[in-house]
């Protein structure tokens, strides 16, 4: 690496502004962080979730990036060939809405922001390889979004169908189920409506079982649980009831409770509702169905008073032959199971609440062992497994999982039921009615139907001159010339699809594009496929059931297409917490609690900000910002600077042995290694701060200037390099090091120096702690007692008394009983 010219001597006072920009420019000019796949060392692909180019990196971006940057630097110094790229997730509604507000094109607004944010990343002091950067709104990138879509279409994994969808009235577009939070748009917070529309979907449900298998990826248990619950696999049976509108099949996870069914419930959207509704009940049913249509699925699933309406019709129980009233209720969803349920109020909480609300019968068919039963007026359902009762041939069988297979087998033999597995997961709705996204590469021909755009015609570029104010239909429809197309099948006149893709498509495979961002023959160069999977992927927990689930699905499809031999895109995933405002609330401009990292860098320098963000709290938890707290790291780096450039530390003479110094250095190195493995960044900084204190003391001793002192400073600086890269680089040059400190090998722990032959134990006298002694690890009881007797501050506590008993636990404690 070419070094910038430095004026000597250096100031004894730490001034980050005199060194940080200089080293950032030097690193960039020398290509220090440019990844070479042919370089020696085991590959390590480290990736943080790329940001949306909103215009400025906020403190949350810094928190998400500086700790993984330190980890990537550590891996590089340990001999790994580290790929650490960065791009921009640049399509989406925020850019479109900002452009509408400012009266500009989203493209210019987006790319101006990207240029600004790249500069901010540079001032952060990261080791990002910018030669591999791209934005998802680059035509060279979204060309491959479109190529993937056409491949999915040809494989039957992309399809269009009509149905109820989530609609955001503010953003004027549909939303995937995963983008609805608490009944509102997760982006703008507007209550979501339900509409019947024809939309594009990807068949993620084909991979539901595979997505429940996490054996090839190390994800936090919380993420695995969130994805598992979202997929919602349910094993049970489908049971068929006869109704006036024909056979109706319901799904149940508890077929052992079949004889406890006392009524049937249909979702308001169920296709048979109108046919099953009698003339007397029609007005009430139609009013209820209309009201349910104004609620989201989330609202319908919330706890509260159950609502419903009787259709006037009855189903026939397949075993008992009893008539079961058929109700319509919004707590049943048409998208789950078959859209109808057999209601067993004695053993299901929602059915119980509904039966109580409308005076419907409750029949016990599962009884807790040793119980006398529910009685005539049960106050709550029994949802345990228990024993089957009141069920004829099944009486006495254990309920639940233990006998479900046996019950289903008997019901199947009678033609009443069949085993069935269902999922909560629904296919991914990917069509959007907005402008700033990837155009869906489908051509609609009246003669040939929907046809994929041929590969040689990709990318289908977004037109520039479009009125994109939201109207509820795609803005692309307004560009009649753009819409005109030729059918690739028959050559006749046709029209382009005018929807754009959900931006989560962009981020589902972007980690592969970093392998070869300029490659023109496919989404990535097959010769580079060995760089996958990502070895460490970091980002927020909020993406657990959106981006992380979708990207896992995408990789599995790519595997089946022969593009990769990986089952998972990420070998290891870790989530950071959130930096909150000083008031403990999420930072927002409206609360006035936002912290601007640019202001902090201007005042304290990047290394200080990096240090504080790693020190503020456990990285995976986060915590509130403390304006005064950053002064501690600032003072620490001032002390670090003085150690290297300030001469011998001032202060009273200290007595520090070479063994003491080497123990402090190598035990700290050992701890830092373990903490990097665990990604425990706050304890790394704490350990380096503690070592600084030891080094200051050693500098006041006869060790100052000795070989042991030089070794200690050299190892200390190498340990600093991942955390505070600028000051470590300046120190490296100042001490005459060759090349860059970030090209050096990580120091090796001297195991003999990192352990002590002595141990400090507590001494109790008649049950009370009276002090500590330092003794050999192999010390006998007599030797430990002698050491305690030699300590006047301890020995005075049994002065004039007889020692009647000694209890010694080697390495832990000495207890002296005196009377």
What does this structure look like?
This protein is of the alpha+beta class. Helix 18 (631-645) packs across helix 20, helix 19 (658-678) packs antiparallel against helix 20 and helix 20 packs antiparallel against helix 21 (707-720). A hairpin with a 3-residue loop joins strand 19 and strand 20. The protein has 25 helices and 31 strands. The protein folds into 4 domains: 45-230 and 425-576, HUPs (Rossmann fold, 3-Layer(aba) Sandwich); 234-422, Alpha-Beta Complex (Isoleucyl-tRNA Synthetase, domain 2), CATH 3.90.740; 597-753, Isoleucyl-tRNA Synthetase, Domain 1 (Orthogonal Bundle); 757-818, Ubiquitin-like (UB roll) (Roll), CATH 3.10.20.
What is the structure about, briefly put?
The protein has about 800 residues and is α+β, with helices and mostly antiparallel strands. It folds into 4 domains: about 350 residues, Rossmann fold (3-Layer(aba) Sandwich); about 190 residues, Isoleucyl-tRNA Synthetase, domain 2, CATH 3.90.740.10; about 160 residues, Isoleucyl-tRNA Synthetase, Domain 1; about 60 residues, Roll (Ubiquitin-like (UB roll)). The chain is about 35% helix and about 20% strand.
């Amino acid at each position: 690496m070419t070094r910038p010219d430095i004026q000597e001597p250096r100031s004894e006072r730490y001034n980050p502004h005199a060194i940080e920009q200089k080293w950032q420019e030097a690193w960039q000019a020398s290509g220090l962080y440019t990844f070479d796949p042919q370089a020696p060392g085991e590959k390590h692909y480290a990736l943080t979730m790329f940001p949306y180019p909103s215009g400025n990196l906020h403190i949350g971006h810094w928190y998400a990036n500086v700790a993984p940057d330190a980890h990537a630097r550590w891996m590089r110094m340990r001999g790994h060939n580290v790929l650490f790229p960065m791009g921009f997730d640049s399509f989406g509604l925020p850019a479109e809405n900002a452009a509408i507000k400012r009266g500009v094109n989203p493209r210019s607004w987006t790319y101006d922001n990207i240029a600004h944010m790249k500069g901010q990343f540079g001032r952060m002091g990261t080791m990002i390889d910018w030669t591999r950067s791209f934005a998802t709104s680059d035509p060279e990138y979204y060309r491959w979004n479109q190529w993937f879509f056409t491949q999915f279409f040809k494989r039957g994994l992309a399809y269009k169908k009509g149905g109820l969808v989530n609609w955001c009235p503010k953003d004027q577009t549909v939303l995937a189920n995963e983008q609805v939070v608490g009944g509102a748009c997760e982006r703008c917070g507007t209550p979501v409506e339900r509409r019947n529309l024809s939309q594009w979907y990807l068949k993620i449900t084909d991979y539901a079982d595979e997505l429940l298998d996490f054996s090839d990826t190390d994800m936090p248990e919380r993420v695995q649980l969130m994805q598992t619950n979202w997929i919602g696999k349910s094993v049970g049976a489908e049971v068929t009831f006869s109704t006036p509108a024909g056979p109706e099949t319901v799904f149940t996870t508890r077929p052992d409770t079949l004889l406890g069914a006392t009524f049937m419930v249909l979702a308001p959207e169920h296709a048979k509702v109108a046919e099953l509704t009698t003339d007397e009940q029609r007005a009430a049913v139609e009013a209820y169905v209309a009201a349910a249509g104004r609620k989201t699925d989330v609202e319908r699933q919330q706890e509260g008073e159950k609502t419903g309406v009787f259709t006037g019709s009855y189903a026939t129980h397949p075993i008992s032959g009893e008539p079961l009233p058929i109700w319509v209720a919004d707590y049943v969803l048409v998208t789950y199971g078959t859209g109808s349920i057999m209601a067993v109020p004695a053993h299901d909480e929602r059915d119980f609440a509904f039966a109580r609300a409308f005076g419907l019968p409750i029949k016990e068919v599962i009884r807790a062992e040793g119980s006398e039963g529910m009685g005539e007026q049960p106050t709550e359902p029994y949802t345990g497994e228990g024993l089957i009762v009141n069920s004829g041939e099944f009486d006495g069988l254990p309920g639940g999982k233990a006998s479900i297979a046996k019950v289903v087998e008997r019901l199947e033999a009678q033609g009443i039921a069949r085993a069935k597995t269902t999922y909560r997961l629904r296919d991914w709705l990917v069509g959007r009615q907005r402008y700033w996204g990837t155009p869906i590469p489908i051509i609609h021909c009246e003669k040939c139907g929907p046809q994929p755009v041929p590969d040689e015609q990709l990318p289908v570029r977004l037109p520039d001159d479009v009125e994109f104010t939201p109207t509820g239909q795609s803005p692309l429809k307004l560009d009649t010339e753009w819409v005109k197309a030729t059918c690739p099948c028959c050559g006749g006149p046709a029209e382009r699809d005018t929807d754009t893709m959900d931006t989560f498509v962009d981020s589902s495979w972007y980690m592969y594009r970093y392998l070869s961002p300029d490659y023109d023959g496919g989404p990535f160069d097959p010769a580079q496929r060995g760089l996958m999977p990502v070895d460490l992927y970091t980002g927020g927990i909020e993406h657990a059931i959106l981006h992380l689930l979708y990207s896992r699905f995408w990789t599995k499809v790519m595997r089946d297409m022969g593009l990769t031999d990986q089952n998972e895109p990420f070998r290891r995933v870790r989530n950071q917490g959130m930096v909150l405002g000083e008031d403990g609330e999420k930072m927002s401009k409206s609360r006035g609690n936002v912290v601007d990292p640019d202001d902090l860098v201007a005042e304290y320098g990047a290394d200080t900000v990096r240090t504080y963000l790693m020190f503020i709290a456990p990285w995976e938890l986060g915590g509130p910002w403390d304006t005064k707290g950053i002064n501690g790291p600032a003072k620490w780096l001032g002390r670090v600077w003085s150690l290297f450039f300030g001469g011998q530390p001032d202060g009273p003479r200290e007595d520090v042995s070479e063994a003491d110094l080497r123990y402090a250095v190598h035990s700290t190195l050992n701890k830092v290694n373990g903490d990097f493995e665990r990604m425990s960044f706050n304890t790394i900084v704490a350990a380096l701060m503690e070592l600084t204190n030891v080094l200051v003391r050693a500098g006041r001793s006869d060790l100052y200037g000795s070989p042991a002192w030089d070794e200690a400073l050299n190892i200390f600086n190498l340990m600093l390099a991942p955390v505070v890269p600028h000051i470590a680089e300046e120190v490296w040059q100042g001490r005459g090091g060759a090349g860059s400190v970030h090209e050096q090998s990580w120091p090796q722990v001297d195991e003999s120096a990192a352990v002590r032959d002595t141990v400090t134990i507590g001494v109790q006298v008649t049950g009370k702690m009276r002090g500590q002694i330092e003794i050999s690890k192999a010390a006998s009881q007599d030797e430990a007692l002698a050491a305690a007797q030699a300590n006047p501050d301890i020995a005075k506590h049994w002065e004039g008394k007889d020692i009647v008993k000694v209890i010694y636990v080697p390495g832990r404690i000495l207890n002296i009983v005196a009377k």
